[in-house]
Amino acid sequence: MAVAVTTKTAWKLQEIMAHSSNVSSVVLGKGSGRMLATGGDDCRVNIWSVSKPNCIMSLTGHTTPIESLQVNPNEKLIVAGSRSGSIRVWDLEAAKVLRTLPGHKANICSLHFHPFGSFVASGSLDTNIKLWDVRRKGCIFTFKGHTEAVRCLRFSPDGKWVASAADDHTVKLWDLTAGKLMFEFTGHTGPVNVVEFHPNEYLLASGSSDRTVRFWDLEKFQVVSCIEEEATPVRCVLFNPDGCCLYSGFQDSLRVYGWEPERCFDVVLVNWGKVADLSISNNQLIGVSFAQSTVSSFVVDLSRVPKSDSVPHGLIRDDQPLVPPTPTGSSLRRIYDRPSTSCSKPQSRVKHNSESERHSPSSEDDRDEKESKAEIQNQEDYKEIFQPKNAICRTPPRNEPFPAPPEDEPGAAKEAVKPSQAADVQTSLPKQELPDPVQRPAIASSTSLTRTEPSVIPAARNEPIGLKASDFLPAVKSQSQTELVDEEAMSQIRKGHETMCVVLTSRHKNLDAVRANSLDSAVAINDLSVVVDLLNIVNQKPSLWKLDLCTIVLPQIEKLLQSKYESYVQTGCTSLKLILQRFLPLITDMLTAPPSVGVDISREERLHKCKLCYKQLKNISNVVKNKSGLSGRHGSAFRELLLLMAVLD
């Protein structure tokens, strides 16, 4: 019998030498997920078909490096903004420049096409946002309000609004019909890199360099939820087409988020570095990144990534109950009204604005357009992808997903974490055969399917940890004898009541001892349940964490991570994540800093504590590495911790 081949969840598709100089911008076509455009310091825009090695078309005309790119929804037009503030729009089917749009005074940082009108929005380092009519070759309106560079622009699905994200830490929502600011969303503490509208509901997501993702309600104009600090800045975000979850691209990882309540469903390790753009096609997520003159593309199989209808992954605290997410079909908010024809309201702005806002054609612009060229470098691919307008099909072939390569050998998987391990077990278990939640192990390795006894005691239980309900009831002598006499049952319960009182009294005594003394006494008691109780309190107030506290609890955290109780592992993961985020930079800086001149007792004490913490973290990193291949929420949590601890290697 043939052995089933396990394929990867995420893999590298290809790497191309995109330009003769450094690449400065890349974008994917959202219509097919197969079109790739790159801009470089060589002032060229190159068009590629994802997974094909040869450039299809090279667009010239800009005289300064390309800073921003965007492809329109039907992939017929592409717009490029340069460092000088110039914008050019090319018709890919006609293979020629369509418009040159001067007006900005500094770098073009962001561009976006209107979803169904002939309009382009541009954001610049000059802090202005301009709305352009591509057909009329003019600026319709200029929005002013940001105080720093505008990094991202997005039109709403109904085409009535545009959202902007900027380095001034704000997200602004503009009304295209009224030509004014609707609302300013504040809350980010760092530059906002990306913003994205929900495909159906009045919901907006924003990602920032402050390492948070925020969700905004566009009816009540307030924050819905906030995904707390991650390890690296948020580089790009993309909603699933049905709106069930949000994909967020980080350094070398993809995270899947829900927002009501906020939660991380999964973390997929993808070695894509600083990912620049995401697109979805055939239930596969395509991600592209660039470094120097090369561009790399990666694929994530979304059929093996948990979304809102699956058990959430990641760090979930015991004091936060699991609330089932809202079903995809029932929306809590208004739904966008998409007109069947092009939006005519923005066009009316041309009549209401002064002549100075509109840009009339000039001989200089005509000369610029004549100097712009589209060099078709691969005639065969060009004809296949950009056919004449009256053809039935003009988009790249997209009916077949990219084939997934086989998973690496098990031996290699122990040395390097593989992003697909968390999904391997889940896809092999039919949903209808899942056992009762109390009996099902919450953590399982990819080789433990044949085991019948759970290796971990789940946190969601119908009986207290350490106590068995069967101890309080008489054993059933026969299958037919299922009903108990009241007196007999009460006698058994009273007998077990004494055991319960002893356990609770002992635990209360331990907590009183800790309250009267210090955390050192909690460790001296050698009872992990006491340590868990205390850490659950400290985790709610990160300001309580000190370097002294780290040296005391890190050995206990190592024990918690190896515990058979799921709630202990959850608490250990949460505490370790807080320590890594708050103290790892300090520890590495202290260990790499040159020795001080003279005697500095406080510095020496701090250095000693840092060395002790570093040694303990190295020991814990081995535990995290061994458990990063587990499935379920803890596998995802351990992989996230492994990313945070990468600097220890």
From TrEMBL:
Coiled coil: none annotated. It holds the Pfam family WD40. GO terms for cellular component: centrosome; cytoplasm; katanin complex; microtubule; spindle pole. WD repeats lie at residues 16-58, 59-100, 101-142, 143-184, 185-226. One of its GO terms (molecular function) is microtubule binding. Keywords: Cell cycle, Cell division, Cytoplasm, Cytoskeleton, Microtubule, Mitosis, Repeat, WD repeat. InterPro entries: Katanin_C-terminal (IPR028021), KTNB1 (IPR026962), WD40/YVTN_repeat-like_dom_sf (IPR015943), WD40_PAC1 (IPR020472), WD40_repeat_CS (IPR019775), WD40_repeat_dom_sf (IPR036322), WD40_rpt (IPR001680). The keyword Cell cycle applies. Residues 310-457 are annotated as: Disordered. Residues 444-453 have a biased composition (Polar residues). SMART domains: WD40. One of its GO terms (biological process) is microtubule severing. It is found in: Cytoplasm, Cytoskeleton, Spindle; Cytoplasm; Cytoplasm, Cytoskeleton, Microtubule organizing center, Centrosome; Cytoplasm, Cytoskeleton, Spindle pole. Residues 495-645 form the Katanin p80 subunit C-terminal domain. Residues 352-386 have a biased composition (Basic and acidic residues). Gene3D superfamilies: YVTN repeat-like/Quinoprotein amine dehydrogenase. Participates in a complex which severs microtubules in an ATP-dependent manner. May act to target the enzymatic subunit of this complex to sites of action such as the centrosome. Microtubule severing may promote rapid reorganization of cellular microtubule arrays and the release of microtubules from the centrosome following nucleation. Belongs to the WD repeat KATNB1 family. Interacts with KATNA1. This interaction enhances the microtubule binding and severing activity of KATNA1 and also targets this activity to the centrosome. This is Katanin p80 WD40 repeat-containing subunit B1. It comes from Lonchura striata.
